Amino acid sequence: MKQIDRLKALGLFDSRVPRYTSYPTAPLFSAEIGAAEQARALQQLDPDVPVSVYLHIPFCERLCWFCACRTQGTQTLSPVESYLDTLVKEIRQVGTLLPKGVRMGRMHWGGGTPTILTPPMIGRLAQAVKSVFAQTEDWEFSVEIDPTLVDRDKIAALAAEGMNRASIGIQDFDPLVQQAIGRMQPFEVTRSCVDDLRVAGIRSLNADLVYGLPHQSEVRMADTVDKVLSLDPDRMALFGYAHVPWVAKRQKLIKEDSLPDDQARFQLAGLAAARFAVAGYEAIGIDHFAKPTDRLAQAARHGQLRRNFQGYTDDACPTLIGFGASSISRFNGGYLQNAAATPAYIERVEAGQLAAARGYLMTPEDRLRGRAIEMLMCDFRLDRAELARGHGTAAAALDDILQALAERFGDLLRLTDEALEILPEGRPLTRIIASAFDAHTPEGVRYSQAS
Ligand SMILES: C[S@@+](CC[C@H](N)C(=O)[O-])C[C@H]1O[C@@H](n2cnc3c(N)ncnc32)[C@H](O)[C@@H]1O
Ligand code: SF4
User: Fold this and answer.
1) From the CB of 68, is ligand 1 less than 6 Å away?
2) Beta strand segments in 177-309, E
3) Which atom of ligand 2 is nearest to the CA of 68?
4) Is the CB of 309 within 6 Å of ligand 1?
5) Which ligand 2 atom lies nearest to the CA of residue 63?
6) Which ligand has the minimum distance to the alpha carbon of residue 60?
7) Could you tell me the distance, in angstroms and rounded to a whole number, from the CA of residue 427 to the centre of ligand 1?
8) What is the Å distance from ligand 2's center to 63 Cα?
9) Do the Cβ atoms of 356 and 349 come closer than 8 Å?
10) Does ligand 1 lie within 6 Å of residue 140's CB atom?
11) What is the full DSSP assignment across 34-100?
């Protein structure tokens, strides 16, 4: 049987499984956990351990048809301004509960499009965060940037606040593909954004690409990859297009008969990955690539790669505090998510309440399973000794799953007393293999396909 037929028989194209940016996944969060748990978690933080901070800006000037992010299109700045007022209030509110001296090791602004903010708004928001959290010496500040909605003044304002990492959305450079996804983005505009970011001193630049988009072909994909490589990014994310029109209604604008079929998607992903490898990038986890000198690649080599809501990270901070509508926070005890709809979020904060509206408290078994899933998603290797060290005899509860996986996936896996390894030929099935450790199946949730 050809490799692709074998992977197909094992569910590559039919399985609908999470991307495991958390475990348990967000659909499991419950409305019974919220502001009270948030207050307690904030008050109990250890001031000696730095935290990571995430700020969500759920606005875009244009709404790309392919995009599944929760964001609102706006042609004026007035909704952004009033959202910013609330965001600053939320930051101050959280600040009143924090023990003295909590520092931040990382700050990330995502969206939506954070670069919809004007330079004065950028300064106001950054100062609000800095007034609550002191920065560690090696503080990192990263921002998601839409190259068509940024200029030198905005980049200068972000750099003045300490931005040292950036991520730009590219998706695809081919005009036909761009037209079909409602996202026109000339190469020259992207090139000049990258030049401005480098001049501003960005030390790590990520580019987002997507395979499986309408009209993508091997020739077009090769051209996009070459253009992206000419921009010399330090990292790249290559996401499979998640076509989920039942969640992201605007995807109904995408003509389904223009989408590459399952086999073509698989080939497009393989083509891009092969070209990245030839250019000297290391494959990181299921969908990232990085220069060997980049911190993500170094973390992967040393078994220090982690999975979080932004995908892969070398961030070692155990606590993530999310601000803004729909932001997710991670504390020692579990997860909390702010009210997801922007009006509901604003209402809560303006009423003086904490913004968390849903959450999940982790059990010891969740931690064990979550770490098993994270190891597979990050390292393609579940280290049995590490699980036993961290979780004691409870780790043996996973033995039956390990055996069942070894039987089902045969020589695509290697099971020894030390570890379960996913061998290179089996790696396209990683999400499916990891899902064997997932004890929760939320009702009524339809995930995107696993490839
Ligand atoms: C918040 S956006 C990026 C920042 C900025 N708004 C921009 O467009 O340049 C995050 C990324 O999620 C990815 N993404 C969004 N919708 C997706 C989908 N349906 N399938 C796969 N990836 C998707 C895209 O690669 C996108 O760049
Ligand atoms: S891809 Fe970026 S700019 Fe386009 S809708 Fe999504 S978040 Fe907004």
Assistant:
1) yes
2) 204-211, 235-240, 282-284, 288-290, 306-308
3) 6
4) no
5) 5
6) 2
7) 23
8) 6
9) no
10) no
11) SHHHHHHHHHT--TTS-EEEEEEE-EESS--TT--S--EE-SSSHHHHHHHHHHHHHHHHHHHHSPT
**Chain centroid offset of residue 162 CA:** 22
Of the candidates 312, 310, 309, 290, the residue with the CA atom closest to the CA atom of residue 232: 290
| Closest-approaching ligand to the CA atom of 244 | 1
Nearest CA to ligand 1 atom 23: 67
Q: What is the pLDDT along the chain (451 residues), one digit of tens a residue?
A: 688 999 999 999 988 899 999 999 999 999 999 999 999 999 999 999 999 999 999 999 999 999 999 899 999 999 999 999 999 999 999 999 999 999 999 999 999 999 999 999 999 999 999 999 999 999 999 999 999 999 999 999 999 999 999 999 999 999 999 999 999 999 999 999 999 999 999 989 999 999 999 999 999 999 999 999 999 999 999 999 999 999 999 999 999 999 999 999 999 999 999 999 999 999 999 999 999 999 999 999 999 999 998 899 999 899 999 999 999 999 999 999 999 999 999 999 999 999 999 999 999 999 999 999 999 999 999 999 999 998 888 899 999 999 999 999 999 999 999 999 999 999 999 999 999 999 997 666 666 776 6
Q: Which residues pair with 22 in a beta bridge?
A: none
Ligand 1 near 239 CB (within 6 A):
yes
Say if CB 64 and CB 183 are below 8 A apart: yes
Asked if 51 contacts 105 with a C-beta cutoff of 8 angstroms, the reply is yes
* 63 Cβ inside 6 Å of ligand 1: no
- CA 89/CA 103 separation, integer angstroms: 19
For ligand 2, residues with CB inside 6 Å are 60, 62-64, 67, 69, 71, 111-113, 146, 169, 183
